[in-house]
Design a protein that fits this description.
By secondary structure, this protein is an alpha+beta fold. It contains six helices and six strands. It folds into two domains: 2-110, Substrate Binding Domain Of Dnak, Chain:A, Domain 2 (Up-down Bundle), CATH 1.20.1270.10; 121-240, OmpA-like domain (60s Ribosomal Protein L30, Chain: A, 2-Layer Sandwich).
């Protein structure tokens, strides 16, 4: 009888060990599956960013034809090499670098557009009229309502135009990308609209001519994912009323 009890205890212990090993194996499988899914998502976003950069250059949306273009091309080449390898950290690093270079290129182009706005002489009215800026929007970094140098240049041109056209009133519309809650993005969009309004008021535009509204994440210019797409949705637009 004592032997039977000993055998029962031994078999029970063995069963627990087998069960524990199986559970551990299942846990490891789950972790590996999650890791593989994460890596796949990183690669998918990186590929999307690469295609966006390729499209930007091939469609002639770049106006600089300077080192900004070459920097984007170099970053694209680095990302392509990283995607061909297995090191996901290199992919993430190369993806971040390309996103940064694209942002710099967009800001450089926006600055050129602002500089292209110049006054013209109207002999009939015998005074200078200012050409309306070609760009009516400024873009923001992630989770920020701080105006960039490119945004300041655009708004400086817009302030000059508004001061030369006192009969014009505008609405400033703040927008965000889809990350974060709806309430948070509505608040952030309002902060971005207010930043634009404050700049214009500081440069001589009467506050009563400037309304503000936040659309948060409700009006995305790009509905995809990844930094190249999200960057297109972080802006404030000046719309004539």
């Amino acid at each position: 009888m004592k032997l039977n009890k000993m055998l029962l205890v031994a078999f029970t212990g063995l069963g627990l060990m087998v069960s524990g090993c199986a559970a551990k194996k299942d846990d490891l499988s789950t972790i590996e599956a999650q890791k593989a899914q994460y890596n796949a998502e990183v690669r998918h976003d990186a590929n999307g960013l690469y295609q966006s950069a390729e499209s930007t250059l091939s469609q002639g949306r770049s106006n600089t034809n300077t080192s900004n273009d070459q920097s984007v091309k170099n970053a694209m080449a680095e990302l392509k090499i990283a995607l061909a390898g297995k090191d996901i950290e290199k992919v993430k690093s190369a993806k971040q670098k390309l996103a940064s270079e694209l942002q710099a290129l967009n800001e450089a182009n926006a600055q050129l557009a602002a500089e292209a706005s110049a006054p013209v002489t109207n002999d009939t009215m015998n005074h200078m009229q200012v050409v309306k800026p070609s760009s009516n929007g400024v873009y923001f970094a992630f989770d920020s309502a701080h105006l960039s140098s490119a945004g300041n240049n655009i708004l400086e041109a817009y302030a000059t135009w508004l001061n030369a056209n006192n009969d014009v009133s505008v609405t400033i519309e703040g927008n965000c990308d889809q990350r974060g809650s709806r309430e948070y993005n509505l608040a952030l969009g309002q902060q971005r609209a207010d930043s634009v309004k404050n700049y214009l008021v500081q440069h001589g535009v009467s506050a009563y001519r400037l309304d503000t509204v936040s659309f948060g994440e409700e009006r995305p210019a790009c509905r995809g994912t990844g930094e190249a797409c999200w960057a297109q949705n972080r802006h404030a637009d000046i719309v004539r009323r």
